[in-house]
Amino acid sequence: MNNTAGDIVLLQPINDLIIGGAAGATITNNGANGGIDVTAAAGTIDVEGPITTNGTGYIALTAQGATSDINVTAAVTSLGGGAITFTADRDVTFTADGDVASNNGNITVTADASGFGAGGITMVDGTTINAGTGTVTMNAFDDILSTGSTTTNATGAAVSITSVDGDILDA
């Protein structure tokens, strides 16, 4: 899917949502300020193809439901500095190919967003999250396994990693 103006909004009201997959689809917003908003209202989001904004638009991935996860196995990139958010009611997992980068936008990863009391964040070895001059925030109920986040932001809020009832571990 390629857009040159406005936002791209995908809503899967039931079941899982796969971006990419066997067809090799990608989501690209070439608009100056257009965002990408992907929601699985009752399922998991699997990012198997790249998601990119070329302007300052945001990228928001939301998986709702007690057993809903976000699995990122392809790059998610905001080239113009837009914010990137991952919000899952259970787990968020990044593979080595699931790198996240924003050219100066904040990156936020939230597991157990609805407070069910279960949800962690896993970055397998080799995963990178780079916010440029933006901030990196990770929140989860369970364990957070991080391989590293990068920012050149020099404030006290540059990187924030919080687990309510789990450990924060280095992969």
Description:
The protein is mainly β. It is 0% helix and 43% strand. It starts with a strand and ends with a strand.
In round numbers, the mean pLDDT is 91
Strand order of the largest sheet: 1-4-7-10-13-16-19
Class by SSE composition: mainly beta
- Principal-axes geometry comes out as globular
Largest sheet: 7 strands, parallel
Strand content: 35-45%
Helix content: under 10%
Series of H and E elements:
EEEEEEEEEEEEEEEEEEEEE
Computed Rg: 15 Å
Name some characteristics of this structure:
mainly beta; seven-stranded parallel sheet; 171 residues
List the helices and strands and how they pair.
Blueprint: E1 2-3, E2 8-12, E3 17-19, E4 27-29, E5 36-40, E6 45-47, E7 51-53, E8 59-63, E9 70-72, E10 76-78, E11 84-88, E12 92-94, E13 100-102, E14 107-110, E15 121-123, E16 129-130, E17 136-140, E18 144-146, E19 149-150, E20 159-163, E21 168-170
Parallel strand pairs: 1-4, 2-5, 3-6, 4-7, 5-8, 6-9, 7-10, 8-11, 9-12, 10-13, 11-14, 12-15, 13-16, 14-17, 15-18, 16-19, 17-20, 18-21
